[in-house]
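Narrative of activities, Objective 1.

The group set out to show that a structural description can be obtained from nothing but a protein's sequence at a throughput compatible with the screening campaign. Below is one input-output pair from the validation batch, recorded exactly as produced.
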Amino acid sequence: MENDKMKSSRASQSRTKEVKKTTWTPPSSLDAPPAPDGYKHRWLRAEVLGFDDTKNMAGHLRSGFELVRAEEYPNSEYPVIQEGKYKGMIGVGGLLLGRIPNEVVEARKEYFAKLTQDKTDAINSDLMKEQHPSMPINSERQTRVTFGGTKKS
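Output recorded for this entry:
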């Protein structure tokens, strides 16, 4: 009757659990504080090779970005610009942290998706106008990955 009992392996009786090996990764210099609800944070280029990139910053500010001040995150250790016109802003290595509303992000996505679609349609239209009846152009938009050998359908 004792043989009817299930026996567990000796390994399962061990009290120590297998510890998952921890992996180390270097810290990112572009860590950013979490954005408030309804906003996204993005790093904006403020300078290149020591020269101010005013065109880039002005364009971002006109398109709806606002710069993030370090005082908005008082108990944090994010890098802060110490001098100059961006003094007090969160920034590192010529980049400044910017905030943009989610509505603007979605509107930009839709705008650029439409722009891309319009360009694709124009290319296809021009391509179809240029085709010759003896050599028709097939506009196939499909990707295949093969690893040698014959093509299997």
